[in-house]
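lol forgot to send this yesterday, sorry. struct tokens for the thing we talked abt
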């Protein structure tokens, strides 16, 4: 599949914005890389890259070609996965982008269960905010995205979804810890550590606070949920997360999650999705079924309670 190698070269040049950097990544000389790109441009009849003093930039034709190249590479990976499956080899990798709230427990436990059944499958797991996760899907960088409150695009196919309430994360000795649920006005009485504004839970809080003319006592902000949990634990602050990422069991650090009253903050959707029209590799398709079943079971359990 020599043509795929050339396609991957074009994609790497587009990713790095530099023929030299791409050549280094692929163990080629810059002159050899440049010659291959020039030969391809001559065959197509139009430049794919605009050469600049520092690096290269895709032309309009180049953008179209890179989209084509990525789809061809993804199709080839799917074909190889099918061949391996026929040989009884269920290999990966499964490429997933997810919200941080899924990382510590939910997604890790599903990966562990799946690998017990399919030990040859590997995983490439990225924690990204919802917009970057959807961009990664569109670029064929990941097979699946599991994110909270994504902006729905025509290119997406929703595989499964489940409503998620916001919960207040507090230390077990915090005055709010014993409550069954809390109002947002109660939370505003205590110092808080909040996620930054790129994350879905923070966006909900900001929207609600603006409507209610409510000001939270923000002492710290971070784009890391691990950091926020540390601040709650060490500084006795209050933070917020969707319920699937709430502290539990031995992973809780003596923290608890208290649901925020849905009269204040409505539930949002946690969505498992893929690129519309894309046939997933065997391993990714099988793992998406595992995630879909888990989300369906969560929704059914919530409706019964």
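and heres what i got for the seq, position by position
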């Amino acid at each position: 599949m020599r043509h795929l190698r050339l396609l991957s070269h074009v994609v790497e040049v587009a990713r790095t914005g530099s023929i030299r950097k791409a050549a280094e990544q692929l163990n080629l000389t810059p002159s050899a890389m440049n010659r291959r790109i020039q030969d391809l441009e001559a065959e197509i009849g139009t430049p794919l890259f605009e050469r600049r003093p520092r690096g290269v930039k895709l032309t309009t034709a180049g953008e179209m070609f890179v989209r084509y190249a990525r789809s061809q590479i993804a199709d080839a990976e799917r074909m190889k996965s099918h061949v391996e499956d026929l040989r009884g080899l269920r290999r990966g990798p499964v490429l997933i982008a997810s919200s941080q709230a899924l990382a510590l427990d939910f997604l890790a436990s599903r990966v562990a269960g799946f690998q017990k059944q399919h030990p040859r499958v590997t995983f490439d797991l990225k924690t990204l905010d919802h917009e970057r996760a959807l961009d990664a899907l569109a670029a064929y960088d990941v097979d699946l995205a599991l994110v909270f409150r994504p902006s729905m695009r025509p290119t997406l196919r929703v595989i499964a979804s489940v409503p998620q309430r916001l919960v207040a994360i507090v230390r077990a000795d915090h005055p709010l810890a014993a409550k069954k649920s809390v109002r947002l006005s109660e939370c505003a009485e205590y110092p808080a550590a909040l996620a930054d504004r790129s994350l879905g839970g923070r966006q909900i809080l900001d929207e609600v606070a603006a409507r209610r003319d409510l000001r939270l006592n923000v002492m710290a902000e971070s784009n890391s949920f691990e950091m926020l949990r540390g601040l709650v634990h060490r500084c006795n602050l209050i933070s917020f997360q969707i319920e699937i990422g709430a502290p539990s069991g031995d992973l809780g650090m003596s923290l608890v999650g208290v649901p925020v009253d849905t009269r204040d903050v409505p539930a949002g959707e946690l969505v498992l999705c893929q690129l519309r029209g894309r046939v997933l590799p065997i391993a990714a398709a099988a793992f998406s079924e595992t995630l879909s079943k888990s989300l369906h079971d969560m929704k059914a359990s919530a409706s019964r309670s």
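The radius of gyration is 23 Å. anyway ping me if u want another try
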